[in-house]
Amino acid sequence: MSETQQQREWAPIHGLPYRSVPYRPERMPEAESRETAARLRTRMDERRTVRQFSPDPVPEQVIRDAIACAATAPSGAHQQPWTFVLVKDPEVRRRIREAAEHEERVSYGGRLGEEWLAALRPLGTDEVKAHLTDAPALIVVFQQRHWLGDDGAKHKHYYVDESVGIAVGMLLSALHLSGLAALIHTPSPMRFLSEVLGRPANEKAFAVIPVGYPAPDCRVPDLVRKSLDQVLVEV
Ligand SMILES: Cc1cc2nc3c(=O)[nH]c(=O)nc-3n(C[C@H](O)[C@H](O)[C@H](O)COP(=O)(O)O)c2cc1C
């Protein structure tokens, strides 16, 4: 972390221009760049969503560092519209599981509709969410839909879905590259998360991310990812 980052605290500067500062990162030699990209491609392809967790504890600082990585994400107008709640307390995880399973029973019971249920069927997921209590930690991500000025005025945040989605992608990458497994879980609807965690009205739950090590008998669906040819169009 640079000296400047350590010393300066973020504060909203709504309506004011930023001072501009030089940005001259050292250019990576091409060979190193190629090697880094190829290695990263392989490492990222090894990431899998895990749904069966070991209760073994994980180094908490690794999770905090991953959250700090996520918080470096770009965001619309640099509004950083996210809050990450790290839940370790077993009783709070139990309450989250109970409420999530309540919603999921209704969802899998038909609320999702046949098309959505058909899309989920290949994964074999159901309303039992043991990962919420098995994993030693949950990161509950909230979107801040707006912020309140000192005078109580409501200011809209822009591109909140995109910004938080990018931050969560960076979080999942950081956790994976640091040796931890995760699942992005989106029990729908997620209002109960604000209630259980006592979050303010400007925040809306985005996802619950159990984090830990895979259980010794963990299995994952043998899914196939699209090839580069199928996702890349070069013009
Ligand atoms: C926005 C989003 C929501 C998801 N919600 C759930 C969920 O509620 N439950 C679940 O088991 N998996 C969920 N997943 C995980 C996907 O099913 C998983 O990423 C996909 O099957 C591909 O598997 P992989 O992550 O191992 O590549 C979600 C993924 C994303 C990106």
Automatic annotation (TrEMBL):
PANTHER family: IODOTYROSINE DEIODINASE 1, NADPH NITROREDUCTASE. It holds the Pfam family Nitroreductase. The keyword Magnesium does not apply. The chain crosses the membrane at residues 164-184. Residues 46-213 form the Nitroreductase domain. Keywords: Flavoprotein, FMN, Membrane, Oxidoreductase, Transmembrane, Transmembrane helix. The lineage of its organism: Bacteria, Bacillati, Actinomycetota, Actinomycetes, Kitasatosporales. The keyword Oxidoreductase applies. Residues 1-36 are annotated as: Disordered. This is Nitroreductase. It comes from the Bacteria. InterPro entries: Nitroreductase (IPR029479), Nitroreductase-like (IPR000415), Nitroreductase/BluB (IPR050627). Residues 24-36 have a biased composition (Basic and acidic residues).
